[in-house]
Amino acid sequence: MQVNQLHYFTTSLLHYFTTSLLHYFTTSLLQSSYNYNERGMNKLIFTAQIDTLFVQGKVTSRIGLVADAILFSQQTDMGRLIKEKSCCQKIHCVLVDEFLFLTKKHVSQLCEIVDYENIPVLCYGLRKDFRGALFIGSHYLLAWADKLIELKTICYCGRKASKVLRLDDNGLAVYQGEQIEIGGNEKYISVCRRHYMDAINHTKCIEAGEKPFSVVPFK
């Protein structure tokens, strides 16, 4: 796939961009937004109200890119909002940040926007949580999206990073707890499967009063 295809779409499909690196997907979304702006095309950007890490009502990347966004919650009727906006001006694309916070109903509404309003929808976010389980939004996008695009990242060892670790205040891996806990790079890191298991086993050894069998470099 060519680079420009990653950031600009005219075909009405539901695109599912996923990665294991926190906020990497936001940078990709903002690149797409820039490309639509450059062509004089109108787009809508949605981001999750629950995420208070940055300024609300904005999509913000760690490299300084920022764009205005519509906040969505579990109660938001995204389909209705998009249709209302498209009555005022032609909408060429819908961009969704943090798709992990989408509900089954949201994903269904986005499918209808693609199929009946002929508007491409590009969704960006993390596929799995710190336990390796799918988020609700990820589950239904994986099932219903027309196109899956993986934004690949690497572990500190050079292997493909396919897992997300949640760290406690002491830098130890957490393997139990609530699925949603807002945090940045101080709380979440992306690693390969091997180093994910090493970190979890390291924590379990410490909890059991045993000598850890490995050293984790991010502790």
CATH architecture of the largest domain: 3-Layer(aba) Sandwich
The CATH class of the largest domain is Alpha Beta
Determine the strand fraction and express it as a percent band. Answer: 15-25%
Shape annotation: elongated
Structural description of this entry:
The protein has 5 helices and 11 strands. It is an alpha/beta fold and 219 residues long. It has 2 domains: 3-150, P-loop containing nucleotide triphosphate hydrolases (Rossmann fold, 3-Layer(aba) Sandwich), CATH 3.40.50.300; 154-219, Wheat Germ Agglutinin (Isolectin 2), domain 1 (2-Layer Sandwich), CATH 3.30.60.20. The strands form 3 sheets. Strands 5-2-6-7-1-8 form a 6-stranded parallel β-sheet, with helices on both faces. Strands 10-9-11 form a 3-stranded antiparallel β-sheet, with helices on one face. Strands 3-4 form a two-stranded antiparallel ribbon. A hairpin with a 5-residue loop joins strand 9 (163-167) and strand 10 (173-174). Helix 3 (104-117) packs parallel to helix 4. The longest helix has 15 residues, at 24-38. The chain is elongated, with a radius of gyration of 18 Å. The model is unreliable at 1-8 (pLDDT under 50).
Tell me the layout of helices and strands.
Layout: E1 14-19, H1 24-38, E2 43-48, E3 58-60, E4 66-68, E5 70-72, H2 78-88, E6 93-96, H3 104-117, E7 121-126, H4 136-144, E8 147-150, E9 163-167, E10 173-174, E11 188-191, H5 193-207
Parallel strand pairs: 1-7, 1-8, 2-5, 2-6, 6-7
Antiparallel strand pairs: 3-4, 9-10, 9-11
Helix pairs in contact: 2-3, 3-4
